[in-house]
Amino acid sequence: MRPQPPPGTPVPVCGMSAGGCDGAADWPADVSDGSSLPAVELPRKRKGDMEERLSMDCKMEDDLSRSEEEDQQVKIKCFREPHRQIEKRRRDKMNNLIDELSAMIPACQPMAQKPDKLTVLRKAVQHLKALKVGTSSAFADSTNKPSILPQDDLRQLLLRQAADGFMLVVSCDRAKILFISESVSKILNFSLLELTGQSLFDLIHPKDINKVKEQLSSWEYPQEHMIDAATGLQVQTDAPIKPTHLSSGAWRSFFCRMKHSRVAGKQEEKHQLPCTAKKKDTSRYCTLHCTGYMRSCPSSQLDSEGDAETPSLSCLVMLCRPLPHGSPQSPKHINAKPSAFVTRCAIDGKFTFVEQQATTVIGYLPQEVLGTSCYEYFHQDDLQHLAEKHRQVLRSKEKIETQCYKFKTKYGSYVSLQSQWFSFTNPWTKEVEFIVSSNRVMSGPGHIKDEEAGRLKAMQEEIPIIPSLSNGVGTMIYAGSIGTQIANELIDSYRVNSSPSSGASSPFGSTNEKCPLVSPPISTSASSGGGAASSSSQSDSRTAAGASSATADSSGQVSQLDLDGMVVPALSSFSSDEAAMAVIMSLLETEVNVGQPGDYEDLHWPF
Amino acid sequence: MTTDKEKRRAISREAARRRRRVESEVFEDLSRLLPLQQSVRDHLDKPSVIRLTLSYIRMHTLLTGKTGTKAEASHKVKCGQVTDGQMIRHEFNGGYGEEEEKERYDADASEETNMYLRILEGFLMVLSTEGDMIYLSENVSKYMGLTQAELMGHNIFEFSHPCDHEELRNNLRVTAEEVWSGEKRDFVMRIKSTLTHKGRSANLKSATWKVLHCQGRSKVCVAPSSVSCLLLTCQPLPLSHTLLSTQTFTSQHSMDMRFTYCDQRMTLLLGYSTEELLGRSIYDLCHTRDTNCLTKNHFNLCFKSQSVSGRYRMLVRGGGYVWVESHSAVIPNAHSSKSRPGANQPLCILCVTYVLSGVEEPSLQLSLDQTVHI
């Protein structure tokens, strides 16, 4: 693997040197004291020996001169640092080590004053001797390689605690379990006795049996796929791999589900053996990652050093490690209460993902709402606040909580929801790609009463008709346009490097005059997106159709006028509620076709 | 006057030499007690002897210490199996033929452990809450080039990539604050390796970075002293020579995780054709609740160049989803011309994705892509 770094990112290069930093203090250099130990050979010789693995030229020389610290004449001068400093550092380091050591030794604890170096060392010797009493003889004997830990403890540490897996050896022909390590009892809750000698297929989830079969017999299987990581290309070998190749251990890696017993394995209370499980048995399965090697071994014994020339039995020696059970990793960002459902929208508010639980709440099946804008379901009372939150979430890295709002169900009634929104930003491009919403029901579904509906209608009648809106050239002003609009603000803010100046002359300057309901573009939005919100009064106006018809125009003035005809001021800029209501009503009820999304870039909106 | 001075100097020099000799003898005694091979022992300097002694003592404390907080039996079982180890040892103590049995037991354990470590394709690391590598299994040299004796007792921060230090620190801090043993850990870290292509060890100065996938748990001991540590298995993440079955597929992505290629198995398993996927983001194809998992994976790729995703759900074309796990790495773009290394070589992400389950809830359509009719 040799990834190269792209410019300007902290991706490390495998070929890049990681050395050269001062971490290598106190490498096991040669013991430099010449008195009772093997004589120190000439510096040059040793240096060649160790320096292949260690660095720090300076340190090397220091170590050699350490024993002569009080004898100034023999000191090898080091030109990098004043020798005094090096000495001091070394002394400090040694003192620290001695202090640490004395802290670990019980005998050194209760001393009144700090014990001297020699005493600590002597106590350490005694302590080690004491520790060795009663430990296994394999600890430091000659038959096994001595290791710093008793082998049994190491196994405990490894199998039970760190790695959380068990070892499994199965024969390749019939998947008979030849060996299984003790730790399986902790993971699958079956005992060794129950499993050894059984067929592995009794344990495996029925749907994974073929997969496992493939892994066991793949070396006979003609289609062998290897992947060459240097190029990322697949290498396909059609010839079966010969048995002689097995001795080097063909590697396997796969996932499978294995049965596990519910009750922790006490010998007496054993659950059904896997092979005697009834058909109706609702066994639970856990997913395991199995990795290992193919091996040849003599028929009756498990021998890891198998005889390659006469393989009597080939088997797979594996390590099986469980993955976390059941439901997905507890989502930190996504609030997952039982009565909640998760949805995902594109940045313009169109649903791209809806969980099935939503149906019980909103009545629609996911496929019925997918592709439609969430704004189509919002109640008019809530449009303003939700549009606000929409803007906010696109510019924030935090979760945004909405207030309670009404969501229109399939049956026309409204249900009260409250949502938590979070925008996903691509780690590479740093652009927002979608919004995740965790929605929960606040109270029972509410209905808009008839009187209310009547009142709304009355309000509508009172408001003077806005001439500009009815001059529609066949364009539809859609609730969804609010979302599209907000999304476009974001897209443009990505393209514009600097904050758009809010003082820029606005092509909508004339709008204010034309449309009496539009107040000056005072932004009440808290959005910080580079001042984009400040011109939101004009921005909401753009509909897909509007843009497309505008781009067709060559004359800037004319296009502006045409657009003005479709300008619908921003919700946030209204000074009166009634006015806002009027516009929203018109937004929702005007029947116009939505044209093709156009390219807004030519229009130079001042965002 | 000068002779006096010289005399005094000579005396003090002699005294110093005597002191040093005595000290060396004690160091020698100490190093002999450490279970190390003679060849290793000969090369130890004094600080290393202390370092390894410290490791030894700490590991001993860890293994024999009582785990969990209050000494409740259920907790002991839950938190640590160390007591089992102790019990087994006690069982074997005091008895005539049992010494041999113990030896055989340990020999078996040794073999199992070695096999285990080999299959694991990684090494074991025990970290103190300060980041000291209290213990490393012997095979660490196979992955890092440096040996167990050279590394043990040193601090992980000296060997890991500076950009990963924060994540490491977080993991260690949480460990220090923990009350129960057993909290799982899973993270990716870059570590120095002195191995060359040919597998030989080079100078530390020319060390390269290696990406390790570290998994494990915390371990808390209360008695005799309060000690917490992290037990980790560290595996390098290679992608080469992965044997792909019909349940595995590969895909390539640009650095923003948009598809640039996928093999035919993906079409078979998930129903999407290559053309449909090109340019689409992987995030669109997966269950929304797994966004975090994917994001973390993506981050690891951007900053550490390799990652293991953990389980997540990929939506199947006609409906439903499958559980998958991806092993990914950043590689130079295969389709670009071979430019000189170091030049601005375009990168891409290579993913090997294992399908873990069958298609779940096949009738369920959750995303926009699933609803588009073929």
Automatic annotation (TrEMBL), chain A:
Chief place of localization: nucleus
One Pfam family matching this protein: PAS_11
Low complexity compositional bias, start-end: 501-510, 523-556
Keyword ATP-binding in annotation: no
GO molecular function: DNA binding; DNA-binding transcription factor activity; protein dimerization activity
Compositional bias annotation for Pro residues: 1-10
Domain BHLH: 78-131
Key words of the record: DNA-binding, Nucleus, Repeat, Transcription, Transcription regulation
Cellular component aspect of the GO annotation: cytoplasm; nucleus; transcription regulator complex
PROSITE patterns the record matches: BHLH, PAS, PROKAR_LIPOPROTEIN
Protein name, per record: Aryl hydrocarbon receptor nuclear translocator-like protein 2 isoform X5
Source species: Gymnodraco acuticeps (Antarctic dragonfish)
Lineage: Eukaryota, Metazoa, Chordata, Craniata, Vertebrata
UniProtKB/TrEMBL annotation, chain B:
Entries under Pfam families matching the protein: bHLH_HIF1A, PAS, PAS_11
Ranges in a coiled coil: none
Domain named PAS: residues: 112-179, 254-306
Any one biological process term the GO annotation gives: cellular response to hypoxia
InterPro entries membership: bHLH_dom (IPR011598), HLH_DNA-bd_sf (IPR036638), PAS (IPR000014), PAS-like_dom_sf (IPR035965), PAS_fold (IPR013767)
Record's GO cellular component terms: nucleus
GO MF annotations in UniProt: DNA-binding transcription factor activity, RNA polymerase II-specific; protein dimerization activity; RNA polymerase II transcription regulatory region sequence-specific DNA binding
The entry's keywords: Activator, DNA-binding, Hydroxylation, Nucleus, Repeat, Transcription, Transcription regulation, Ubl conjugation
Domain BHLH: 7-60
Major site of localization recorded for this protein: nucleus
PROSITE patterns linked: BHLH, PAS
Keyword Transcription: yes
Subcellular location: Nucleus
Domain of life: Eukaryota
PANTHER family cross-referenced by the UniProt entry: ENDOTHELIAL PAS DOMAIN-CONTAINING PROTEIN 1, HYPOXIA-INDUCIBLE FACTOR 1 ALPHA
NCBIfam families tied to this protein: sensory_box (TIGR00229)
Official protein name in the record: Endothelial PAS domain-containing protein 1
Species, as recorded: Gymnodraco acuticeps
Gene name for this UniProt entry: epas1a
